[in-house]
Design a protein that fits this description.
The model has no long low-confidence stretch (mean pLDDT about 90). About 25% of the residues lie in helices and about 25% in strands. The chain contains six helices and eight strands.
């Protein structure tokens, strides 16, 4: 089956998809999406054409049961495809749902005592947005400062930010003392006030 907001309670999904559905249910403007398994990859393009309607391209991202967890993020371990045209969605879903075979992934699993055969993947197929700016938020600083939220913003789509291909501004917010500060990679780096004002 294909998972949508209408039937998502029937599925066991990873945190990424669960949070997207939660945001959607609370009225947050989330581009339309659905989740699909590798077994149903052959149906992805046809379903996308009807469910996402006038969408020209999609992002296809991983949603694993072990991903974005409390103790393991699997950041950068799974495959993502952006700007996928409608006629190539099926192949992208199969690729994203495949368990990685590289040594880096195997070592990550060993270090975190996770058996790769216990990892199950879905793909999130979502309308692609040609973003002016995008960002990444960490509810806990990856450096181990658990009471500090980190937001990184940059120009273009999120992969530019994640792969450090654009100038960024990073905001650090300490939730204990309500103090924050920011760091910019260059003077031309975008700021939240600018991105919100358009």
């Amino acid at each position: 089956m294909i998972c949508t907001i209408e039937n998502e309670s029937n599925f066991t999904l990873g945190i990424k998809a669960k949070n997207l559905f939660l945001l959607k249910k609370h009225g947050i403007c989330v581009p339309p999406f659905f989740c699909i398994s590798e077994d149903d990859a052959f149906r992805a393009a046809d379903f996308a054409a009807s469910y996402l309607r006038s969408c020209e391209s999609v992002s296809v991202r991983s949603c694993a049961n072990a991903e974005d967890g409390e103790n393991t993020s699997f950041a950068g371990q799974f495959h993502t495809e952006l700007n996928v045209p409608m006629n190539k969605i099926n192949a992208a879903v199969k690729k994203v749902c495949a368990i990685p075979s590289g040594e880096g992934f195997r070592e990550y699993c060993r270090q975190n005592n996770i058996r790769s055969e216990k990892i199950h993947l879905h793909a999130i197929v979502q309308q692609m947005i040609d973003a002016d700016h995008s960002g990444v938020i960490f509810t806990a600083n990856p450096q181990g400062i658990l009471n500090e939220t980190v937001i990184v913003i940059g120009s273009g789509t999120g992969d530019n930010v994640v792969e450090d291909r654009t100038d960024t501004t990073t905001y650090f917010y300490n939730r204990t003392d309500n103090m924050y500060y920011q760091e910019t990679s260059r003077t031309s780096s975008p700021h939240i006030s600018e991105t919100l004002s358009g």
